[in-house]
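A quick word before the example. In earlier lectures we treated sequence and structure as two separate objects. From today on, think of them as two lines of the same record. Here is Transcriptional regulator GlxA family with amidase domain written that way.
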Amino acid sequence: MSAVVRQVLAVSAPAVPTVRTVAVLAFPGVVAFDLGVPCQVFSSAYAPDGTPLYRVMVCGPDDVMATAVGTACFRLRPEHPLRDAARADTIVVPGLARDAPEVAPEVLDLLRTAVRHGARVLSICTGAFVLARAGLLDGRRATTHWRMTGELARARPLVEVEPKALYVDAGQVLTSAGVAAGLDLCVHVVRSDHGPAVAADVARGVVMAPEREGGQAQFVRHPPPGPGETDLGPTLGWMREHLHRPLTLADIARRANTSVRNLNRRFQDQVGTTPLRWLLRARVDRARELLESTNLPVERVAERCGFGSPATFRARFAQRSGVSPSAYRAAFRFHETARRENRNVQDV
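And the structure line, produced from the sequence above:
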């Protein structure tokens, strides 16, 4: 194993991976998607030798009706009773339908006790309201679905609600925005626990970007473009095709046939971030692809992705990914090689 691989593994994961237990709570009226997301993400995380990095339990009563947009979809029977969640390292509270029964007081007690004992607690979408009822969000930053952030702020004035965030990591208590933002939060947790290479592998398995740019403000319904304004889709496509060029705000505004001021406003409305931040995110994503799929030297990757110099590329990549480009490539290939070897052993 090379020195670079040893370095990145020391940074991104423990030498002997700790198998963490994740309890996903299932209540009557649970949102089916929110329930499935943590099960899928955490069950997709493996050490290079094929060892699962998480043990996932679904905990709840014997009979649970799962919902989608408030519509009853199917019944499920959790494998574990609620009390088993008390021994988990991480507890996930999915969203609930609006007309779902109130969560029982013993559930709130379980969550409070878990936090006192050092467990990590996550909520997805409107699961934040359960954490709020337990008093776990008081004095903390938090978010929920953009349609519900105002209601959460009014109901719990001690909570610092962040309406634009896809997720909020407040240390021991983490919250996500609506529905698909639960994916972002769970991949973030994997990244925090086991490093960017494992998180990128998980994200690839669930077919999502390792990190999404912008907050949930981009998903709020905005007025349609006014006279002379257009959707940014063609402009974003053009930017992706010209990542290698030293694009400026003026270049992008000219392509979008608008002023720099209007360009910034439209990016905030439609994408949830600024043009240059979106460009940096796209360049780092392209760099990840090249580091994973080619043998190009780091200097060539920097050139193809439009970074002014290898030094700038290394700094920006490390800032976004947590490791250097060389370390990321080494860790990715180490994981891929170990996984192939493990599959070959299992096939024998």
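Notice the following. Residues 325-347 form the longest helix (23 residues). We will return to this example when we discuss secondary structure assignment.
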